[in-house]
Amino acid sequence: MKEYGRLVFTVCYSMTGDYFQSEDLAQETFVSAYRHLDSFDGKNEKAWLTRIATNKCRDFLKSAANNKVKPAEDEVFAAIASDGQSPEEALLSADVRERMLACCRKLKEPYQSIAVSYFLNEESPQDIARRTDKNVKTVQTQIYRAKAMLKKLWKEGSA
Amino acid sequence: MSGNERKEIHLSDQMIEMLKNGRLSAEEKQRALLHIGECDLCAQSFAESFAERDLIPLPPQFAEGVERKMSRLRITATPLSLGRKLLQNSGEDPQRTSGGGSAEDRRRANVPARRTEGSLEPGRRQTPQEKKREYRRYSCRVAVAACVTLIMLFSGTFTMSMSALSQSRVLNPDLSMINRITQDLSDFSKEIIHWEVRNND
Question: What is the dihedral of CA B60, B63, B68, B69, to 10 degrees?
């Protein structure tokens, strides 16, 4: 997971465009990989995990009918000669971070500061509780609620 | 098209970039993902198309989330052991592993084991009959609690109304008979007076 976790998550995010859904899909990828280790020939872990992640994304897109592609715009871009390098290609991680920050700013306190600390600064609930002098359980509950709100905001932002 | 010819048709780098940038139609995207899900070569190319700088940091507590999902499915191994197991070679052909393989695996995966009144045996899942029994027990407990609450609530009100009724009997005695007797006596005395007057006339 340390070696391929980011890759799997990035694959899921690039296909779905949804940060939290990608998290679920990436986690399910590793669970599925472990459950079906017997079917792995041991030759190419990267490709194998990518295949699983791709299938998970495909199933999700099929079931949710969630498609971020806009055919009208695609036709325009397809007509433009391209050598495979897109001038609009931005760093995925920077894009995700900006969007997450924008969503966090829409939250009210104390959820805003909790969300920024947890999702962007990557502080653990224990560290947040120690810093803010709150109960760990309280912080975890607030993180849970903030996550639910961010999921909605992220989807609204994608729509 | 023969099977061999089909196997040689892979996704080009351009196609992969278009897939990543969201420039494919929904149908094309599904077809591309289907192919990547079945082809090691294209999956490798797809994975390698993501530069190191493009990789997004994992969400917080990602590994804990994986552990939670595994424990729900009653898998005892930790994510760390996944790395060790990946080094083993079973010798079987790679199969499509999305969604947990067979439909039975998927159904099992979607039915997490729940705790019963006794402790849940490790690796054991509840049968439908056990679930029904547990639901009935829970309903009975809720019904009994509701009844007790209602009894406690209304027993106080009943006592109050009884005491109010007994107070009203003491305060309002029945004097109608006495009033009638008084009236009769008064009428009789008036008649006597009238009779006296008529006789004297």
Answer: 110
State whether residue B97 sits within 8 Å of chain A by CB: yes
User: Which of A48, A89, A118 is facing B94, going by the closest CB pair?
Assistant: A48
In-domain check, residue B93: no
DSSP label at residue A110: T
* Contact B78/A at CB under 8 A: no
pLDDT one-digit tens code per residue, B55-114: 888 998 899 899 888 888 765 555 555 555 555 544 444 444 444 444 444 444 444 444
Q: Please answer yes or no on whether A93 and B57 come within 8 Å at the CB atom.
A: yes
A91-158: CATH number: 1.10.10.10
CA distance A152 to chain B (A): 17
Tell me how many residue pairs between chain A and chain B have CB atoms under 8 A apart: 213
Under CATH, what is the fold of the domain A5-64? Rna Polymerase Sigma Factor; Chain: A (1.10.1740)
CB-based contact, B105 to chain A, within 8 Å: yes
Asked if B151 and B102 sit in the same domain, the reply is no
**Angle at which helices A92-105 and A5-16 pack, to 10 degrees?**
70
Alpha-carbon gap, residue A36 to B110, rounded angstroms: 16
Q: What is the C-alpha to C-alpha distance for residues B84 and B172, in angstroms, rounded to an integer? A: 93
**Separation between Cα atoms, residue B63 and residue B201, nearest integer Å:** 127
Residue closest to A7 by CA, chosen among B97, B58, B69: B58
- Tokens describing residue B144: 């009994």
Contact B72, B112 (CB under 8 A): yes
Provide the residue ranges of all domains of chain A, joining segments of one domain with +: 5-64, 91-158
User: Does residue B50 sit at the A interface (CB-CB below 8 Å)?
Assistant: yes
Q: Are B42 and B134 members of one domain?
A: no
CA atoms within 13 A on the CB side of B159: 6
Please, which residues 129-158 of chain A have a Cβ atom closer than 8 Å to chain B?
Answer: none
Judge whether B120 lies within some domain: no
pLDDT digits (tens, 9 = 90+) for A59-82: 998 887 645 444 444 444 444 434
Check B98 against A58: CB less than 8 A apart: yes
